Please model this.
Amino acid sequence: MLKNQLVSICMPAYNAEKYIAHAIQSVIDQTYSNWELIIVNDGSTDNTASIAECFTDKRIKLIFQNNQGQCTAANNAFKASNGLLIKFLDADDILSPETIESQVKRMNENNESVASAKWGRFYNNNLNTFKLNNETVWQDLPPDEWLVQSWKNAQPMMQCGLWLIPRNIVIKSDLWDEQLSLINDFDFFTRILVNSKMVLFTQEAVLYYRSGLEKSLSGTKTRKGYESAFRSIEKATSELLKVRGDDKAKLSCANIWQSFIYDVYPHQKDLINKAKVYIQHLTKPSVTFPCGGYSKLLLPLLGWKLTKKMQLLKYRIFLAFVK
Model:
């Protein structure tokens, strides 16, 4: 029975002093009251912990650990949780007040499916900039079909706060891969979905996804970050292809790999070559090089590789100028 069950919200937090109060308050403001919030302070060097401690709600638990990364913090939050329903939530995002209640209702007594939500971005700490990002997967779908549709244009949104997950599915899927950093959610939630019976879209649930952070993990473009992204894509695409190997699934996987190539070019040549090998065993990608403005005009003339180099050159000039 999932109705009125305890929902455990697991929140890793690292140097989130500017945003964590908003995230916590969005949990407190939920219309569903039977929840616990487990915050794992991942060795923050700012006031993240002291801000979290200002909230006196007894349903909030604060745990401390040395800096070990988001995945370890998420895993430790889960291990400290008690609920039969689990939601992971980043410390800089916000839930609409009806999110948890509406997702619990959608799941009813179904402990073999997960509930999803709407989402949109907001910028500069200003919710007035929020805009929903409509997707074709905003409907009830079998998990393999959800993945195929979401990945088709190589811009999948699988972020933590979207999902409400039965505890047994988290255990069955295994926890977060602590070797990953960049796009670690891509691997984790792919495993969650392939171990579920259905993705239940929840019309009333909305995730407010904060974009444009100065030190966003998703913007960490280092060798270690790219290796993490490669490994996450490798694991996730393998999971999908285990359960579905038709042409549509192969195309979606190929597009994810091609998008990775677009992102890392002209650097990380070894990872690019490995990604090309995966594509060769799939199908020809259909996703085009993402660009706008003058780059979009240059693309038919120069091709995507030269266009990407022009973009990088322009960025270097900009950085030199602002310094």
